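Section handout 9: paired folding examples.
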Amino acid sequence: MTKRTRFMAFILLAVFALSIGCASTSKQEGTGEYIDDSVITTKVKAMIFNDDTLKSSEINVETYKGVVQLSGFVSSQANIDRAVVVAAQVDGVKSVKQNMQLK
């Protein structure tokens, strides 16, 4: 093999290895999914913060593969219901899991 052929084979192998390393599995997000989930989490937090009826300090938001999980202690069932509705309206949210509890 020539040096150029070896070099091209090395580059192709490196690209293949990197693409496999960034792929997602059932238990681990890929790089793109992690960034998407971070954006979704930020948007949900912003929507909750901008809602006059909700206290953003009471509600924790986590996202994994488009599924938003809300947790924390809130003052009423109406706030729980409102937070779920607000989170579900964000683009990219596949579903919302509600783990909030009443104070």
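Moving on to protein 2 of 2.
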Amino acid sequence: MSYTIQEVNGCTKKLVFNFEQVDLSKEIKEALVAKQQNSNLKGFRKGKAPLEMVQKLFGPQVENDALYRFISEQYYQAVKKENIRAIGYPEFGNTKYEAKNVAFEATVEIIPEFELKDYSKLTFKKESDAVSAEDFETLKKNYLSSKAEVTEVKDEKATLNKGDFAVFNFEGEKADGSKPDNMKAQEYMLEMGSGQFIPGFEDGMIGMKKGEKKDIKVTFPADYHEEDLKNAPVTFHVELLEIKQKNFPELNDELAKEFGFESAADFETKNKERMALQKKREVAQKLQQDILEKLIEENQFDVPKALIEDQKVGVKQDLTRTLKQQGFNDQMIELYFERWDADVTSKALFQVRSGLILDKLAKKYNVEATEADLDSKIEEMVAQSGMSKEEIAKFYKSNENVKRNLMYAIREEKTFDALMKDMKVS
């Protein structure tokens, strides 16, 4: 064997090669002939220049190319022989070629090898996946919102509640007594509970009566977009002018048909079924996230930088779609990623670690995603979305990348199902 293997860390190996008798003359001669055939040298027709001239002009380049091919071939043969699960391209270094002696090093990241600690004694709590009457009423109001009328509450004794609309004047005062123009407004309308204002502001208004004035003290978030307001204590002087409420029409068969249902009864039946599936999935995802966080906490191992960088690309793509929906332009998105690169990296690292752990568990439980699993998942999507089976099946089966991603997600779900049988889940 003309090489040795060194462990750099849990996810990096260094292969040190040393060949004492290497004759590259044949490879160099073949490369020169190929170069001769493709060369256009002044005074000669293409491919007719003397080999000696080609040697003189391109000799060092051809020799380097032959050496690189030899190095690459030896590296890949060693990786295959040693069953090294290499990631990306190796980093070559310390290359020497003297008197038929070739020596070089190849450093490469690998899929880390690790053993999971015993997880049979870990305990987790699964939240209830029951859909409440309040949940259904909220969904129904979302449908009826475009048909609702916002009217003023005439009762002078009425107090502002969550879901009401407040019409009010406000002025923010900083700790130094200044009152910036961008923290004041007249006859501003805000839905209570919408979360549009600084945390604590809307809660501070709950219970106010029409005509009442109140000072509401809040502290701006540490990640607020304006530098001088990060963690800043501010007192808002508020005057409530009006309380308004949304008056929703009754859901009848006519309105239900406008929303794409056969009747009010059909609206209730189908939406409750979809909500049940949605809640069940949300609860399962929450439990899976809790399990992953605990498994990652319990099992620390080195992670290849190449995998993290690849995952960051996906994280950024997902965030870009979300930010654009929120009105960010390309320049704002670029600044966002510059500022929050550490958070993006942390999220990517979590996803890589969880992926490696789930892959190991899938192999332990002999879990694979089948075409039958794919068909079942499509049926589930049909029940949840209301779209036709043909539309969904075409989307997931006509694009190999999309299908592969869904199959991977199915494999993860099946892995969790097997894993939770070996855990304490209450």
